[in-house]
Amino acid sequence: MKPSNNIWIRRQQCPCGDWKCYIKYEGDDQSSVSSQLVKSETMASSSSSEAVFTPYVGQIFTSDDDAFEYYSNFARKNGFSIRKARSTESQNLGIYRRDFVCYRSGFNQPRKKANVEHPRERKSVRCGCDAKLYLTKEIVDGVTQWYVSQFSNVHNHELLEDDQVRLLPAYRKIQEADQERILLLSKAGFPVNRIVKVLELEKGVQPGQLPFIEKDVRNFVRTCKKTVQENDALLTEKRENDMLELVEACKATVERDPEFVYDYTTDENGKVENIAWSFGDSVRANTVFGDVVAFDTTYRSITYGLLLGVWFGIDNHGKAIFFGSVLLQEENSHSFAWALQTFVRFMRGRQPQTILTDLDSGLRDAIARELPNTKHVIPLWHILSKLSSWFSLPLGSQFADFKADFDMVCHLESVEDFEHQWKILVARFGLISDKHIALLLSYRASWSLSYIRSCFLARMLTAEFSQSLDLFLKRILSAQTCLQVFFEQVGIASNLQNQPREGMQYKHIKTCMPLEEHARSILTPYAFNLLQHEIMLSMQYATTEMANGSYLVRHYKKMDGECLVIWIPDDEQIHCSCKEFEHSGMLCRHSLRVLGVKNYFELPEKYFLHRWRLESSLVPMDDQHVQSSSDECTQAFHSLTATLLTESLISRERFNYVHSELTGLLEHARNMPVIDEFALNMVANNVSES
């Protein structure tokens, strides 16, 4: 157990604080994997063992190990286990005979009694059973193989049922993942009986249904105790040395990047305890995109015993952008408070309007104390990822219905509706006294849409942003050999020049409305695409003017509820009851519809937030020549496809031919590599010349 690589794992302790609660993340499918693992360990009759037939004399195997595995599967299916007995060796063939026997074969030889006052008398399970399988090696055409030379399946003892055979020592195995978990719990001071209970809860199995017993865990912990102590000493030394190296790396970075900032704390022995840092590019980016910040504390290092915190924002292209990072020794309110203070200092005193975090009481207290004017929001994906751990076992077959109803309640727009439906949900599934329901209710002002719909979130609650954030974390959380390498990986991943360019391509006009074309000249492709979608949908809405100058806007098919839009002409203010602009900084379809009625051909400047504009881009965008080239390509294809459609409708034969050719052409185009801007420009020139 030499501490070589830096291993990162998800934080697994439940925010409710109960030691028995362990979070299995749905995104990783850990719960189902664990359950399947236990089932496969406890029920050997599934998959491979079902295909095992009774061995027979003359049966051939490629190796003696294959034969042992085959016989072992047969034995487990039939209620006994086997062991390796005698082997015979020659100078020419090496080992040429293997004897596998029933675990109750032979008799125990009497041992010399130990010189103790009360020696233990262990009862032997061996009873002279004659069940066996003998192998002999032969070489046929230069190929080595093993064949069954003797086989007997006659037992002189009772065979065991499935729920008993799994308890035989040969089948009681502690998997590597369980070994790591057992050692972690043991280091935390958990007694063996409690460790077994935790593992049963984590895997969602009934008591006594693990593929090993309490005795196995006790023996494993005892065997590893010395190794663990030695390993802890190595890890402590490694952490101290690597933290010092990380501080030196920060000092060296300041020489290359004068705007790079870092800070750290030390304990009473002068050892580095916590450390935080941010790059100059990140500090500058925060001045534009620091209105909403996500503080991710999902991962911690097993090797160093440190919690990783990463601050993210979202840029005007919808991508996660790195603001800073912190490593904390403790997960408590005091440590989080230091991290938040340091981050605000790094960002030159700027506090975000909104901060997004996971559920954590210590973090919530720290935010309330250090960022009193910042709205604390918990993204719904943090809630949903824990539902299975909390409710799948107590609800059983009702869990799917609960999850669907929970999702519906989460998205209610009215606080009154949420409070009413929440009570109905809790009562329906008998969860009134459930501690996790109480936990969610205490945090509801931070995660329920009805409470946060008027908070500015800059589209950081979308699945796209969550994926962008996960992509960044995966790029930095590999198995580094030391913290300095991790620090370098963070620097590479956060470099703006290394950011992926997907989604930054120029967007073409779809409606030919002056309002749309004006917006395209101001917004980034990402932001324009969102607004363009709302512009197109706005055409499906009808308006009814009210006496006070406001408007009721509803879909022409009444597929969704009506919205109230208030128009104040004096200073060109528009407010919609859906709160989309307050939520994302993008005008909604309802407001756009009213502006269309008011004959607006350009949106008022105030509704193009600086954070969504092209001019705010941290990465240079395409020039106007590429935009005009894209328009030329669009016009050329529109003309060509219109002519093609006209010609193909003349006859069925023409239509079938065009359809077949276009299908093949589309498939070929999809498999082609992405053309860069220069190539696109050349294509546009060729089209215009022809």
From TrEMBL:
One of the record's GO molecular function terms: zinc ion binding
Gene Ontology terms: cellular component: nucleus
Primary localization: nucleus
Swiss-Prot/TrEMBL GO biological process terms: regulation of DNA-templated transcription
InterPro entries in alphabetical order: FAR1_DNA_bnd_dom (IPR004330), FHY3/FAR1 (IPR031052), HTH_FAR1-11-like (IPR058778), MULE_transposase_dom (IPR018289), Znf_PMZ (IPR006564), Znf_SWIM (IPR007527)
Compartments, as annotated in UniProt: Nucleus
Domain of life per record: Eukaryota
Chaperone is among the record's keywords: no
Pfam families per UniProt: FAR1 (PF03101), HTH_FAR1 (PF26175), MULE (PF10551), SWIM (PF04434)
Domain SWIM-type: start-end pairs: 564-599
Keyword tags: Metal-binding, Nucleus, Zinc, Zinc-finger
Family that this chain belongs to: Belongs to the FHY3/FAR1 family.
Physiological role: Putative transcription activator involved in regulating light control of development.
Protein name according to UniProt: Protein FAR1-RELATED SEQUENCE
